[in-house]
Amino acid sequence: METKLLEPTHENIKEAARIIKAGGLVAFPTETVYGLGADAMNAEAVASVYKAKGRPSDNPLIVHIAEISDMAKLTPVVTDMMNKLAKHFWPGPLTMVVKKTENVPEITTGGLDTVAVRLPDNKNTRELIAVSGCPLVGPSANISGKPSPTKAAHVVDDLCGKIDAVLMGEDCRVGIESTVLDVSGEELTILRPGILTAEQIENSVGVKVNLDPALIKKKHTIQSPDRQKSDNGLLEDGDPDFKPRAPGMKYRHYAPNAEMLIIEGSADNVKKEIEQRKAQNEAEGKKVGVILFDSDDFEEAAHELFDQLRMMDKTGVDLILAGALPSEDGRGFAIMNRMLKSAGNNIVKV
Asked: Fewer CB within 10 Å: N-end or C-end of the chain?
């Protein structure tokens, strides 16, 4: 398959929309990461997304819309809380999990009775959705399990020849995926943390926001440096019967090719431990990469993490040593969620 690389002109956006309408696949930029787009209401097109990515079919997809009013196409009731959240945070890096209408295919939602919906903060992508005349699924435009794409070049590296087109936009501003908030029940619960924190949501809507227990349970899992994988290398929690309510809850994500180890502790201790381990492994003939962000520069860390992991793959390192970020801050918590998944929860405290 030839993959068209389209600059985001109006004519090219129309061409991308024609591909979507015909059941094809188009990668598009957002402020978080690049998404792989298809008509969310076309079950065959959505199946093609799973195939192109190598994504397990029970891993639900996020549906992207062009206008707040498009919510009515996907959920039977748009509640006051949904409207309030949309007013405060859309367009932007918030995904709402809501009850779905019957016309949303089960393959789009991973067999759930809910659907995850987002209004992205990228005018070209919103134009693409609008011109396509349908909401678009938009999982990260990468091979499933690998670091998410934050540049058009990342998409080309992973999916060129497997999808119809890439809308070649700018680098993603945020760099990690959206906050996924379950609003389908009586309480608000974060299923996947993002740059938009529970505190920010609480301050805006005046309602307590909970964290899904699975997020807290896995926050500081300590394992040996030997990665723990299932036969397919993707299953994270070891329970094949678990039904994830949002992307990122069941399967391994963001994994580089190299072994990765996270070092947690005071800034001085972390730097010392990284230096020692780097020297020791290099003496053994290994190529070592280091990821170390300033402890309070969460925006920079979010923006750079996946790009650095991909650079490590390109340079062929054998081991990645990464400094942990303080997770008391909601942004640090979200970044550590990705780092721990990247490292297979391999963490050493110093």
From this structure: N
* DSSP H/E element including 260: strand 259-264
Q: Is 141 left (phi over 0), alpha (psi -120 to 50) or beta?
A: beta
Phi, psi of 45 (to 5 degrees): -65, -40
Sign of CA dihedral 256, 322, 194, 249: positive
If you count them, how many residues does the chain have?
A: 350
pTM of structure: 0.91
Domain boundaries, the chain: 4-178, 219-349
The amino acid present at 217, given as its one-letter code, is K
CB 149 within 8 A of CB 158: yes
Other CB atoms within 10 Å distance of the CB of residue 219:
14
Q: Report d(CA 321, CA 311) in Å as an integer.
A: 14
Asked if 35 and 140 count as a contact pair (C-beta separation under 8 A), the reply is: yes
Q: Say which CATH topology domain 219-349 has.
A: Rossmann fold (3.40.50)
Superfamily per CATH, domain 4-178: DHBP synthase (3.90.870.10)
Mean pLDDT per segment of 10 residues, for the chain of length 350 residues?
Answer: 96 98 98 98 97 85 97 96 97 98 96 97 98 97 95 98 97 98 96 98 97 74 40 45 58 83 96 97 98 94 98 97 95 96 93
How many Å apart are CA 45 and CA 51, to the nearest integer? Answer: 10
Question: Alpha-carbon distance 205 to 187, whole Å?
Answer: 12
In one-letter notation, the amino acid at residue 291 is I
Q: What are the angstrom distances between the C-alpha of 320 and each of 58, 223, 268, 306?
A: 30, 16, 19, 13
Kind of pairing, strands 179-182 and 35-39? unpaired
- Exposed (0-12), middle (13-18) or buried (19+): which is 312, by Cβ within 10 Å? buried
Secondary structure of the chain: what % helix, strand, coil (to 5)?
A: 35, 20, 45
Q: How many beta carbons lie within 10 A of that of residue 259, not counting itself?
A: 18
